[in-house]
Design brief:
Length: about 200
């Protein structure tokens, strides 16, 4: 005998595909949806569909946007580029309201064990932006782990000959942690105390 009737089972299965959501959490989410009014459930479903239809990547930096070029790339100081692994890292840094430059989202890091090399992430696009001119500093804000460090060193090796200062966030961020989950004070201090690579 099935534990759930088919519609609930399908919903639990879909929720359990989300990162960090196990079967029990997926069940709680499914039960919450069942308890919603039809209007609330429709608004929830519309929000999901809306994100898929409207959100795309900025053609300059690779961050989330609804337009071709994001608001940050249009109005901010282009002489300083902060390089991050994922768009969620941009959100974490933007919360601080300290950084006034622009971003470059790699959409991954170099990880040979997973088969991800420099050509699999947006390093070529970063170099193209730098070669357009006016860039004075590149801040590498990848996670302080083996892959993040390898990516930072690779970028530094490519960028230094272009007469651009390359810095890395200070290690106020614990080794093995992710920028997305770092508290605001630690992240702000890491930004202020970043070091040349």
């Amino acid at each position: 005998m099935e534990i759930f009737i088919e519609p609930i089972g399908k919903l639990v299965n879909e929720f359990s595909k989300l990162p960090g959501v196990g079967k029990k959490t997926a069940q709680r989410y499914a039960y919450k949806i069942i308890d919603m009014t039809e209007a609330e459930a429709r608004a929830f479903a519309d929000a999901i569909v809306g994100v898929k239809r409207k959100v795309k990547y900025c053609k300059v930096c690779g961050n989330f946007t609804e337009e071709e070029v994001c608001g940050v790339c249009r109005v901010r100081d282009k002489s300083v580029i902060c390089v991050v692994k994922e768009p969620k890292d941009v959100a974490a840094i933007e919360k601080l309201r300290e950084f006034k430059g622009v971003y470059h989202v790699l959409h991954g890091v170099i990880d040979p064990l997973s088969g991800i090399g420099p050509n699999d992430i947006r390093i070529r696009e970063l170099l193209a932006r730098i070669q357009e001119g006016d860039v004075k500093e590149v801040i590498v804000a990848t996670n302080p782990d083996v892959s993040g460090d390898a990516t930072a060193m690779y970028i530094a090796k490519l960028v230094k000959p272009l007469d651009v200062t390359v810095t890395r966030l200070a290690h106020g961020i614990p080794i093995g942690s992710e920028i997305e989950y770092t508290d605001d004070i630690t992240l702000a201090r890491a930004f202020v105390e970043r070091n040349k690579i």
